[in-house]
Write a structure and sequence with these properties.
The protein has helices at 22-33, 47-55, 83-95, 133-146, 151-168, 171-183, 185-191, 195-211, 234-240, 254-257, 280-292, 311-321, 333-341, 370-373, 389-398, 428-434, 452-455, and strands spanning 14-18, 37-41, 59-61, 75-78, 100-102, 115-119, 122-126, 218-223, 245-248, 265-268, 271-272, 275-276, 296-301, 325-328, 353-358, 378-383, 406-411, 419-424, 441-445. By secondary structure, the chain is of the alpha/beta class. The chain folds into 4 domains: 14-113, Rossmann fold, CATH 3.40.50; 151-211; 218-328, Cobalt-precorrin-4 Transmethylase, domain 1, CATH 3.40.1010; 337-455, Methyltransferase, Cobalt-precorrin-4 Transmethylase, Domain 2. The strands form 5 sheets. It has a 5-stranded parallel sheet, with helices on both faces. A 5-stranded parallel sheet has the order 10-9-13-8-14, with helices on both faces. The protein is elongated. The structure holds S-adenosyl-L-homocysteine. InterPro entries: 4pyrrol_Mease (IPR000878), 4pyrrol_Methylase_sf (IPR035996), 4pyrrole_Mease_sub1 (IPR014777), 4pyrrole_Mease_sub2 (IPR014776), CobA/CysG_C (IPR006366), NAD(P)-bd_dom_sf (IPR036291), Siro_Cobalamin_biosynth (IPR050161), Sirohaem_synt_dimer_dom_sf (IPR037115).
């Protein structure tokens, strides 16, 4: 480690900036965020810098640098456009044992500004000791993406609650309480922008904790997308990394499962057609029980939990049981498969609407509004439609849809094993059999399928 990261409390302390251009302004912005008094020495100065300095209770000396200015400083930044002046400032500051930073000249610095990720009072500094600034900035970009904007308000809330929590709970339990606050429903309320609810949640939990040592957990109903892990949302990823236990099924790809917290317990509750590994009622009950044990439970589903995912039934039970939950949307198979197959679901020349339909056979028959489905100008997307494919195509033709209407099957869409089979209403069932297409497969029917020839782009390995 080349530099030791320290937290410098510059609030209301005089920081001297030598220079008045854009770089000086950038440093001033940072110092200003932390509440510093900005003393600026420079013949010229940007408007922003002048305002920042005046607003901080500081001063602008419209002159060249002179060593006397250091008398007022507790921290010094040499940001003029002259290397000679910067070197002089650095030498003078070091002679007086003042911390000094000189822009773009590490050898003149006794401290550096790291790349900063900031969420309110929470700040993370990243430094490569000058070895690889581009790498430091990349890491900053990654952290920016990973850390929720809600962390700032969360830190604020924690600051406001600190004394209360201290008064209410003995030291031994406070750590657990804060763990719960930062990982559980409070943090999630804040992420969802529900600041007042979050505060009430803390107060209520505090009362509960005073009376009863084990708080309830929470359930995250999360859409895992169609397969490619790059299609997860940031929130999905965040919750996946917080979970104590995960319930998943067959549609969740192994690549997505890889991203679940390593030491989370994994429970497979997958269903295979006509063979229910774990009946839905049991899944619902399991979610309730695990949450009542105080666990953070991740219910991870393929695609979007609210599209043919029975997500509604699962949270219905949770709501009845008074267990906090949240739902995270995922990219549904229709969007994922269509994009990765190069088939736009709507198109001005072909389809003004799109319908998501279940092709799941009940007692071997399909009871669907065929007349409507055979109407013009729409795209039909059948989920779970492989077994009933023959019936679907025949019914659509019987109800007036042109038998030459293009139709496609997308097998394991968005994954490296994606296969697309294209035909029309007459040929598709035969093609499916010859190519031994297997679940999960999505069926897309309509003029838009014809666009694939030109628009396909995804070529799995
Ligand atoms: N909630 C899920 C759908 C569950 S129903 C979602 O929003 O995507 C299960 C059906 O989804 C499968 O039978 C299949 O038709 C479709 N499906 C899900 N993932 C798929 C994938 N990667 N490729 C093709 N079809 C998929």
């Amino acid at each position: 480690m080349r530099y030791l990261p320290l937290g410098f409390d510059v609030k209301d302390r005089s920081c001297l900036i030598v220079g008045g251009g854009s770089i000086a302004t950038r440093k001033a912005r940072l110092l200003n965020k932390a509440g510093a008094r900005l003393i600026v020495v420079s013949p010229e100065i940007t408007d922003e810098l002048r305002q920042l300095s005046a607003g901080s209770g500081g001063e602008w000396y419209k002159s060249g640098y002179a060593v006397d200015y250091l008398q007022q400083a507790e921290l010094v930044v040499a940001a003029s456009d002259s290397e000679v002046i910067n070197a002089q400032v650095s030498a003078d500051a070091q002679a007086q044992r003042l911390p000094v930073n000189a822009v773009d000249a590490p050898e003149l610095c006794t401290f550096t500004f790291p790349a900063i990720v900031e969420r309110g009072d929470l700040s993370i500094g990243i430094s490569s000791g000058g070895a690889a600034p581009v790498l430091a900035r990349r890491i900053r970009a990654q952290l920016e993406a990973l850390l929720s904007p809600g962390l700032g308000p969360l830190v604020d809330l924690a600051a406001r609650m600190r004394a209360r929590v201290k008064a209410a709970l003995p030291e031994a339990r406070r750590k657990n309480f804060w763990e719960w606050v930062f990982a559980g429903p409070v943090a999630n309320r804040i992420e969802a922008g529900q600041l007042e609810d979050a505060e009430n949640e803390i107060l209520k939990a505090l009362r509960d904790w005073q009376g009863n040592p084990s708080p309830v957990g929470e359930v995250y109903l999360v859409g895992g997308g169609p397969g490619d892990p790059d299609l997860l949302t940031f929130r999905a990823l965040r919750l996946m990394q917080q979970a104590d236990v995960v319930l998943y099924d067959r549609l969740v790809s192994p690549e997505v499962m890889e991203l679940v917290r390593r030491d989370a317990e994994r429970i497979y509750v997958g269903k295979k057609k006509a063979f229910h590994a774990v009946p839905q009622d049991d899944i619902n009950q399991l979610l309730v029980n695990l949450a009542r044990d105080g666990k953070k439970v991740l219910r991870l589903k393929g695609g979007d939990p609210f599209i043919f995912g029975r997500g509604g039934e699962e949270i219905d039970k949770l709501s009845e049981a008074g267990i906090p939950f949240q739902v995270v949307p995922g990219i549904t198979a229709a969007s994922g498969c269509a994009s990765y197959a190069g088939i736009p679901l709507t198109h001005r020349d072909h389809a003004q609407s799109v319908r998501f339909i279940t092709g799941h056979l009940k007692d071997g028959s399909l009871d669907l509004p065929w007349k409507e489905l055979a109407g013009p100008g729409q795209t039909l997307v059948f989920y779970m439609g492989l077994t009933g494919l023959q019936t679907i195509c025949a019914q659509l033709i019987n109800h007036g849809l042109d038998q030459g209407t293009p139709a496609a099957l997308v097998e394991k869409g968005t994954t490296q094993e994606q296969r697309v089979v294209v035909g029309d209403l007459t040929s598709l069932p035969g093609l499916a059999e010859n190519s031994e297409v297997r679940a999960p497969t999505l069926t897309i029917i309509g003029g838009v399928v014809g666009l694939r020839e030109k628009l396909q782009w995804f070529r799995p390995d």
